[in-house]
Amino acid sequence: MSINNIEEVASYIVSEGKGILAADESNPTCGKRFDSIGVESTEDNRRDYREMLFRSAGMEGNIGGVILFDETIRQKAKDGTLLVDIINNQGALPGIKVDKGLQSIGDSEETVTVGLDGLDERLKEYAAMGAKFTKWRAVIKIGDGMPTDQCIDSNMKALADYAKLVQDNGMVPIVEPEVLMDGSHSIEDCYDATDRSLKSLFAHLEANSVNIRATLLKPNMVLSGSTSTTQANIQEVAQRTLDCLKANVPSELPGITFLSGGQSDIDATAHLDAMNKIGGFPWKLSFSYGRALQAPALKAWGGKPENAFISQDALSHRAKMNKFASLGEWDDGMEED
Questions:
Q1: Which domain holds residue 211?
Q2: Residue 190 Cα to chain centre, angstroms
Q3: Which of 25, 51, 110, 176 is catalytic?
Q4: pLDDT for 25-43, tens place per residue?
Q5: pTM, whole model, 2 decimals?
Q6: Among residues 18, 132, 141, 218, which one is catalytic?
Q7: CATH no. for residue 82?
């Protein structure tokens, strides 16, 4: 791979239908996933699971980047190979989650993401370890009186401050303003919260002189709340999401890599495909999925080494399906092949 600058890194990650494998779950989150299959969340088990994913044949050509957790970027495989090198050998670029989680805003239910203190030093270390891009997640809740302007602006300013530091350290920032699908809100409520968040985000990025051509956006799709009695269909989700993006996202942004946000693996693929079939936008629309890529693989693995090939096939299948969706070439009949 001959990639000479951060603009080329950003473009490569989403080139030719490729997307991102989000494998940056914190240890507590990984523990919950392992609990669901009866596996103890030890450092070795986490290493073995992620190594298995990274060695899957379907990584190559379908995955352009892998987001790692701090523990993982430092780990070696059983044979002594750095996990970062395994990712590179698959034609993907290693990245790193750098935020430090959520802090409550006063006594409210809303949060702001923290981690700017000491970030410059951490970024220098991660760049030296081979990271080519980074991720920072902001969380926006919909509810009674939420999201407030304070919550949105505090989070989007932090995202912009993070993005500038990342680019100053020679890496690509992924900015992730996630409007949660949790709740009974309507798709209109989600559109409004997403629209406000994106407007604030790009205003702050511009104010910080962040290079948009060397930035990736990881947003939610515009969805009905998970417990809403009225659930929008695939076409409505696709159209409303595109409308919101077109109203707010600069054309020079190279790519939008959606989070799955609790959608089923098939729904996440179907929504992405529907948007690409509609077309008419200047950016690459791709994926940065965690559960929606990993869930079938995790279930197939079950913590048993003898199931590795079955698990790898499950990940490879989902990666391939999402590549087709990123090109607008997926249909549900492919899931039966």
A1: 6-336
A2: 19
A3: 176
A4: 999 999 999 999 999 999 9
A5: 0.97
A6: 218
A7: 3.20.20.70
